[in-house]
Amino acid sequence: MTAKVRLYVEHPLGAGQSVPLTPPQAHYLFNVMRLGPGAEVLVFNGHDGEWAAAVEGGTKRGGTLGCVAQTKALQLPPDLWLMFAPIKKARTDFIVEKAAEMGAARIMPVITAFTNAERVRADRLRAHAIEAAEQCGGTVVPQVDEAQKMGAVLDHWPEGRRLMFCDEALVGSGAALLDAPRGPWAILIGPEGGFSPDERARLHALPFAHAVSLGPRILRADTAAVAALTLWQMALGDWRGFSGPATAPI
Ligand code: SAH
């Protein structure tokens, strides 16, 4: 038996609810997967959990599903943002895909002094985030922002959010995150060229920043993003049970 098709839809889900398919979804279900009326798929919309839905009918360009029963409650990711300096296209796509799988709530490309990337297409990145959420069983698609300057994001930093500043200059020292408080956080990963001296000085001086090392080797930015998400999820996120404050350090 093959795994059931999972689709992200922008439509309310509930018992008896009809859900229209977009042309690409109809193409995928009816031409690629060759599903017919009555076939069951799974759908989620980021609000109503996951639902089993049956194909009601369709053509090559459209169709509808009918919701049958809820199969999963909504599982919100922890309140974690991933800020990263965009790199080459395929590696940026990788970062977005992995961030969606790893449970970031918001993905923010930020332009730093040494960022050296082609134009960031947020709509393309959103499509990657949706695909990743569909295949990993998530019930939410992370928000993907347009690229913005890192300095501007720091100028308007929200009260109460902490920043896990991954500083390559700390290579080889301890990670020092395990005893940090839970709550809203953001991870910051620099570009291939690293952070400029001015940026590093500013970041270290921010009262909400926790500078961390990701071990004894310099990682590429895409590896660093996955490593940082892992470290954060393990220390402060949903790998150690959902909701409520940590009771004891690992
Ligand atoms: N060119 C830089 C490395 C940049 S690595 C140099 O040689 O120093 C890209 C980004 O990944 C960094 O800005 C940092 O955010 C993160 N990173 C990579 N390895 C790291 C490490 N060992 N500790 C902390 N952050 C790291």
Explain what you see:
This protein is of the alpha/beta class and 250 residues long. It is elongated, with a radius of gyration of 20 Å. The two termini are 39 Å apart. It has helices at residues 23-32, 89-102, 122-136, 150-155, 197-205, 221-236, and strands spanning 6-8, 18-20, 40-44, 50-58, 63-72, 80-84, 106-111, 143-144, 148-149, 162-166, 185-189, 209-212. It has two domains: 6-72, Ribosomal Protein L25, Chain P, CATH 2.40.240; 80-236, Alpha/beta knot (3-Layer(aba) Sandwich), CATH 3.40.1280.10. The longest helix is centred in the C-terminal third of the chain and has 16 residues, at 221-236. The protein is built from six helices and twelve strands. Bound molecules: S-adenosyl-L-homocysteine. The site of S-adenosyl-L-homocysteine has 18 residues, from helix 6.
Helix/strand layout:
Blueprint: E1 6-8, E2 18-20, H1 23-32, E3 40-44, E4 50-58, E5 63-72, E6 80-84, H2 89-102, E7 106-111, H3 122-136, E8 143-144, E9 148-149, H4 150-155, E10 162-166, E11 185-189, H5 197-205, E12 209-212, H6 221-236
Parallel strand pairs: 1-3, 6-7, 6-11, 7-8, 7-9, 10-11, 10-12
Antiparallel strand pairs: 2-5, 3-4, 4-5
Helix pairs in contact: 2-3, 2-6
Bound molecules: S-adenosyl-L-homocysteine.
